[in-house]
């Protein structure tokens, strides 16, 4: 397996909407190929296109599967604050045609979800696809990296606070966010009203929306302060109880969304072996 490469990818994506981007390789796969024909990457919240981690993922997939299409979906910060479900899904309206435009006679879809942003996007994609086509989006394999989570207030703060402005604006933004968290906590713990991420958690094990036959790889870290390992473990356990074939990769020291770079050789070797076992 190639050593993880963190630099900018030497290929370009076609912009289909403000959140959906498609890379189409210049060559077609050989007839006997068993590589994924499309790789669907659901990004984590607010990640920059120049992110070292995101570009490592692109470069690694291009190295492992040079003839695969890459469909990448952004998760915008406002999706976790002010945006409604209809607003989120409006930017995903091209997703059905993007997925179904795969020209391969035998389509093989590999899905890679990153953090709660990726979980939310895939939940929306699954619902849009089911509503638009009448059937579940078929996938050979799904990777859950640091997701799905049902964050506590502390974990939610850890996720959002890193993107706050500096100086006096930090205090204003922080006050607004903490007020929002307070309202959410009252609703969640006092009134029993689930948050949108609480609702995403079971949707990813809803076989009316997600392909039950797809093999799964869950990746988590005990040192993650944003998405707790306990939630990833629990989701994997519940899927396994439903008969899903589940593999896991457990980290002990890597922070949120860093294993794909900091423990890259082990990470991508596991991904490669997982796909081999999913054929």
From TrEMBL:
InterPro entries assigned to the protein according to its UniProt record, in alphabetical order: AB_hydrolase_fold, DUF829_TMEM53
Top-level taxon of origin: Eukaryota
Recorded topology in the membrane: Single-pass membrane protein
Membrane spanning stretches: 168-191
Subcellular location: Nucleus outer membrane
Keywords: Membrane, Nucleus, Transmembrane, Transmembrane helix
GO cellular component: nuclear outer membrane
Principal location listed in the UniProt entry: nucleus
Family: Belongs to the TMEM53 family.
PANTHER family linked: TRANSMEMBRANE PROTEIN 53 (PTHR12265:SF30)
Name of the protein: Indole-diterpene biosynthesis protein-like protein PaxU
């Amino acid at each position: 397996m190639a050593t993880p490469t963190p630099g900018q990818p030497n290929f370009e994506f076609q912009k289909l909407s403000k959140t959906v981007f498609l890379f189409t390789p210049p060559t077609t796969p050989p007839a006997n190929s068993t590589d994924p024909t499309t790789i669907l990457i659901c990004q984590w919240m607010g990640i920059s296109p120049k992110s070292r981690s995101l570009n490592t993922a692109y470069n690694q997939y291009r190295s492992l599967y040079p003839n695969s299409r890459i469909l990448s979906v952004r998760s915008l910060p406002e999706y976790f604050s002010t945006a409604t479900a209809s607003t989120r899904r409006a930017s995903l309206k091209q997703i059905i045609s993007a997925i179904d435009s795969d020209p391969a006679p035998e389509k093989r879809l590999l899905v890679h979800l990153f953090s709660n942003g990726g979980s939310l996007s895939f939940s929306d994609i699954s619902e849009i696809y089911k509503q638009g086509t009448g059937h579940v989006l078929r996938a050979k394999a799904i990777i859950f990296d640091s997701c799905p989570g049902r964050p506590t207030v502390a974990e939610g703060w850890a996720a959002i606070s890193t993107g706050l402005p500096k100086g006096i604006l930090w205090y204003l933004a922080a006050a607004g966010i903490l007020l929002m968290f307070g309202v959410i906590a009252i609703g969640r713990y006092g009134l029993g009203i689930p948050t949108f991420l609480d609702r995403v958690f079971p949707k990813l094990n809803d076989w009316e929306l997600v392909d039950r036959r797809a093999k799964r790889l869950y990746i988590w870290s005990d040192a993650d302060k944003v998405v707790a390992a306990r939630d990833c473990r629990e989701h994997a356990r519940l899927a396994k109880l439903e008969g899903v074939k589940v593999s896991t990769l457990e980290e002990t020291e890597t922070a949120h969304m860093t294993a794909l770079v900091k423990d890259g050789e082990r990470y991508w070797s596991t991904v490669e072996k997982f796909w081999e076992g999913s054929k």
